[in-house]
Structures are given as C-alpha cells and as structure tokens.
C-alpha cells in the first residue's frame, strides 16, 4: 500500500525550526583567568569579582554579550566592561563567514600589569600610575587579528626619567592605535601620540614576537612644540651642548616633521642611543623659533628653515629670520 501523495511528502520532510534565546543574565559571579597572556616561566592568574554577563539573541545569526567584572588586586586590571558580537551562525548551527568583534574598556588599568609583559629594558619600565585603555578587537578567524583603540596615560609618571616633570590635563595624553597581528609579527599601522602641544604619528613592523622581537620600518611624522619638548630631551647625554639646545627650545616655535625613519633595533637588548642616532633620517621644518648664538649679538627671531638629518649630519637650507632688539651697555 502507499500513502496519499500529500501525506507522504509531509511524513518524509524534515521539520525546520529556529532556537533563539532572547536574553540571558548572570550576576554576582566570579571569573578566574589563568595564563591570559603567557609569560615565559610565569603563571599568571587573574581573579575577577562582581562578574555580570548579559546575552541577547543567543543562537541567532548575530549574538551580543555584555560583560562587566572587576579585578580588585592592587596591581590588577581594575574594572573591565566589554561588549562581544559574534555573527555567522546559521539556522543549521553551521558557521558561515564567522566574525568576532570585541569592544573592551579598562578605565583604571594599573601600569604594572603592562610592565610585567615588556621586560626590564622597556622604556615603560619606570612608569607608575593608572592607564585608561580602550580595545576593539576584530577577527574573521583567519591568521589575522586586528586591534584598534586608544590609551590615555595622563595619570602616569616616570620615577627615574625626565617625564616626571610633566603633568597633563585628563584626556590630553593619549595614544590611538591600529595593530594587525600575524602569526609571529605585528604591523603597527597607526600610532598617533598626543601630549599637550606635541603630536606624533608613526607606523612600524614588529617581527619575531616568539623569539627576539625586532622593530623595523619605523616611520614618523608630527607637529611638535619646542617648549614642550624640553622635558623629553636626555640632557645628560648632550653634555656641554645642553645649555645651547635648551635656550633654543625655550625660545618657542614649532618643528614640523615631514618624515623621520629609524633603523631597526632589538627590543630585548638594552636600548642604545648611538646606533639609533647613526641610522636616523629626518626631513623637517622649523618655524617661529628664536635663537641667540652669541651674548654680544641680538637674537635671531621668527626663524623659518628646513633641515635634513642623515648619517649624523645636519643640513640647513632656506634659512630666514630677523634680528631682534638688544640693549646697549
């Protein structure tokens, strides 16, 4: 015997249904993260309290999770607020063009957390204080991972370098960044640094993360206030020339860096100024600055000039300015 045609089709067809959880909540939880970032020979454990998780449209093609938790350790991560968006789940529970987007905010990140991953020779080794960090992470589950965001370091100081002379209004010492992580390298596509009247933009390539990290292809441009550069100059290394350079910077004006490139250097080895200065190449313009080369002569004011630095040689061209006033004895 055979079933009628319409009944037979109904019997053998597969029922299709969709499961979506509109909302899910978890409150007052505790989260323990172990080896979130692996350090050689160290076991990192982070304890988060007051953890809360809210999920929306779970098991749908676009799922959203909102996370909040607190690391209460004295040298910890502080408060973490994050939003996670995952898309690409089909109704048949397969993955199709999956994409992960994470937006995380650390408003009170202790700088010691970052220092532990940078090594003793890092320029940040002497920093103290609190950072505010925003991270946006995007991945399509290929070999490439993209990070972007901003870092506010207005509430940090250095205990042993000239940075301790500087204080910034909140929000006026920031770094905006765009990083692309490969299997063993990081492409620094954007690194925009702003500190008061100083603005510096850079790109670089960091290779050999799992071995000996080397920074190469570093290129910079920027607009810098000469007066605000004073705390960043390594005066002790300038020796007998330090007074002349300081007088020049105190005269005011700006330096516009059209392009500067640095030689590659190993981040594991102690930082050495000499090879960096030897390989430094700079094309820049100086404007509205003053200088008094000799005590008996009036100062040169409103100077406009172009400079080029290469092979530790300084070339000056298109020099213009005017003589200032001087007092007769």
Which properties best describe this structure?
329 residues, mainly beta, 17-stranded antiparallel sheet, 6 helices, elongated
Summarize this structure briefly:
With 329 residues, the protein is mainly beta. It has helices at residues 5-12, 111-118, 226-229, 235-238, 242-250, 273-279; strands at residues 21-34, 45-58, 62-71, 78-89, 95-110, 127-139, 145-152, 156-158, 173-181, 185-195, 198-207, 214-225, 254-262, 265-266, 281-291, 300-310, 313-323. Helix content is 12%, strand content 53%.
3D structure, described in words:
It is a single chain. The protein is 12% helix and 53% strand. The protein has six helices and 17 strands. The chain is elongated and about 85 Å long. The chain is mostly beta strands. About 4% of the residues have low confidence.
Fold blueprint:
Blueprint: H1 5-12, E1 21-34, E2 45-58, E3 62-71, E4 78-89, E5 95-110, H2 111-118, E6 127-139, E7 145-152, E8 156-158, E9 173-181, E10 185-195, E11 198-207, E12 214-225, H3 226-229, H4 235-238, H5 242-250, E13 254-262, E14 265-266, H6 273-279, E15 281-291, E16 300-310, E17 313-323
Number of continuous helical runs: 6
Q: Low-confidence spans: pLDDT under 50, at least 5 residues? A: 7-15, 161-165
Listing every helix as H and every strand as E from the N terminus to the C terminus, the arrangement reads: HEEEEEHEEEEEEEHHHEEHEEE
The largest sheet, given as strand count, sense and whether it forms a barrel, is: 17 strands, antiparallel
Distance between the termini: 128 Å
- 3D shape: elongated
Give the tally of β-strands.
17
SS class: mainly beta
Gyration radius, rounded: 28 Å
Give the rounded overall mean pLDDT: 79
Strand portion, in percent?
over 45%
Helical amount: 10-25%
């Amino acid at each position: 015997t055979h079933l009628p045609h319409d009944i037979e089709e109904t019997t053998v067809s597969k029922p299709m249904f969709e499961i979506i959880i509109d909302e899910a909540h978890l409150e007052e939880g505790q989260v323990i993260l172990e080896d979130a970032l692996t350090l050689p020979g160290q076991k990192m454990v982070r304890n988060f309290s007051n953890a809360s998780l809210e999920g929306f449209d779970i098991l749908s093609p676009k799922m959203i999770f909102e996370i909040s938790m607190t690391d209460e350790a004295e040298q910890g991560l502080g408060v973490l607020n994050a939003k996670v968006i995952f898309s690409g789940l089909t109704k048949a529970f397969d993955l199709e063009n999956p994409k992960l987007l994470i937006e995380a905010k650390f408003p009170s990140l202790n700088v010691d957390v970052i220092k532990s991953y940078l090594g003793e020779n890092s320029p940040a080794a002497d920093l103290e204080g609190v950072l505010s960090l925003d991270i946006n992470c995007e991945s399509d589950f290929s070999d490439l991972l993209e990070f972007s965001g901003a870092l506010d370091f207005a509430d940090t100081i250095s205990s042993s370098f000239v940075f301790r002379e500087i204080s910034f209004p909140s929000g006026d010492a920031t770094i905006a960044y765009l990083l692309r992580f490969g299997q063993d390298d990081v492409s620094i596509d954007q690194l925009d640094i702003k500190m008061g009247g100083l603005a510096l933009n850079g790109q670089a390539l960091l290779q050999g993360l799992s071995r000996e990290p080397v920074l190469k292809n570093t290129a910079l441009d920027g607009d810098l206030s000469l007066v605000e550069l004073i705390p960043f100059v390594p005066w002790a290394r300038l020796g007998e020339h330090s007074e002349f350079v300081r007088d020049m910077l105190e005269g005011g004006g700006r330096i516009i860096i059209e392009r500067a490139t640095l030689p590659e250097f190993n981040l594991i080895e102690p930082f050495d100024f000499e090879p960096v200065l030897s390989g430094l190449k700079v094309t820049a313009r100086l404007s509205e600055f003053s200088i008094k080369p000799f005590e008996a002569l009036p100062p040169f004011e409103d100077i406009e000039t172009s400079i080029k630095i290469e092979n530790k040689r300084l070339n000056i061209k298109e020099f213009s300015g005017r003589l200032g006033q001087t007092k007769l004895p």
